[in-house]
Fold this sequence. Notes:
By secondary structure, this protein is an alpha/beta fold. The chain folds into three domains: 2-153, Rossmann fold, CATH 3.40.50.280; 185-430, TIM Barrel, CATH 3.20.20.70; 436-518, Arc Repressor Mutant, subunit A (Orthogonal Bundle). It has 20 helices and 20 strands. The strands form five sheets. It has a seven-stranded mixed beta sheet, with helices on both faces. The radius of gyration is 24 Å and the shape is globular.
Amino acid sequence: MKVLLIAPPYPLEEFPSPPLGLCYAAAAFEAAGCSVRILDFIVQKYSAEKIKQTLDEFKPDVVGTNSVTMNHNQAVSILKEVKTLSPKVIILMGGPHISFDYEASLTAHPEIDMAVIGEGEITIKEIVPVLHDRKAWASIKGIAFLDGGRLVKTPDRELLKDLDALPHPPRKMLPLSKYLALGLPASIITSRGCPNQCIFCVGRRMVGSKFRTRSVSLIMDEIQELLDMGFEQINFADDFFTVDKKRVKQICSEIKARGLNFGWSIFARADSVDLDVMETMKDAGCHTVLFGIESGNQEILNTVRKRIKIEQIKKAVEISKAAGLRVFGSFIVGLPGETHETLLDSHNLATELDILYGYHFLSPFPGTTLMEEIENYDLEILTDDWSRFDANQAIVRTSSLSPEDIIGFVEEYYNKKIQADEEDLAKRHALGLCTETELMVMQGNKKMDVVYNLLSKDIIEALAALPASNGGDITLLAESISGLIDRKAEIVEPAITHLVKRGYLKKTEDQGKVRWLWA
């Protein structure tokens, strides 16, 4: 059986990692004896022509995708295109959105033959033998489908007990050179499950409240695979990496014992860290810790069941800084009960902590307590357009705040600060007063801008062949690209030089012509 898995478009500005969930699905299909291919539209421009070409070449029996709420509409559009081109193909969809919105999704989009709900690896193993026997689908746990227009939801799938039974995600199916060109971390999980009950989070509903772990040796093996692929940065994407300090220290000890040299980052709760564990992580290569602070107002934190005190947040930041770690704080604006005063509390806390931080607009996703019990909270959701659930738009109101109020706060207390900092940096750069670190950041931002353009517009693929006599010249290549992305050649050339030196771009020569390709 041939299975095509599609990664739907996702904004590069959101710093995507290679799609881990889709790779786990690919591994499950491979383990079930399928031939699997991944078509990745995260790091290339989407087009219906690419869909048709892949379907014609690969001729899959099954096409699947996953999505989060913000790109659910795009994922559905792709599946509709697939069904139009190949009506007999069986279409599956998984991921957090459809797991909690399966009835509406299947009813509105009958081209989706089956929704895979929650953790899908064991479900995939069981559905592969019966995919062409629709009468047998009702015997498979953890799915939903339409039967003659009638919704069928089978019993919930039990969570996987032994995470070590999961094969390593086959990331080599992805266009790795493009992800490496972005320079962003690859993600890995060492555990699943989160015992906390934050009302705005869908993660706990997907992976359960019971903390389940992978063996440290298998984690190290996967890290080595990532390093062998060329990744230099890794993000431990566990919902709650620091829940077990003893285990964190075991991971750090094994990183050092194996001599694994890479930078890494984690998500942590402010009530789960101490100086000893932070120093241990720093010594093993950790450079950044991200705390979900959410609000600077204790009453708001209590409302959203964060179960953290403001003083614990301050202490966690102090400890992290003392250990030499960079700290990033994530705040949410527009939480239930939010007022002008609570927003100012968040601003004041962010200023006092003196850390990198960012504001996200509240997006109450399907599956969250907030979405399912909204009548119990001081909150109104103003749209059902899933594409707007991207945490970059104000889509809620409280009794005290309109969407315009929420946007105005972020503009006044965050965007203007960022703009002022950028203007100050530009002035100091013009005067030759920037630090070495600031110069590196500026150069990195320019390189990232060039790479974003290359990927989102398929620029390398669109390049005309160049004469062999000078087609391998980097300056000529940069000049060719410059006109296509509307950037000065002197900005493009350093970025292209980096990509060529790292082996992410390569040239081929045929019949007196040179073409540049992603490696």
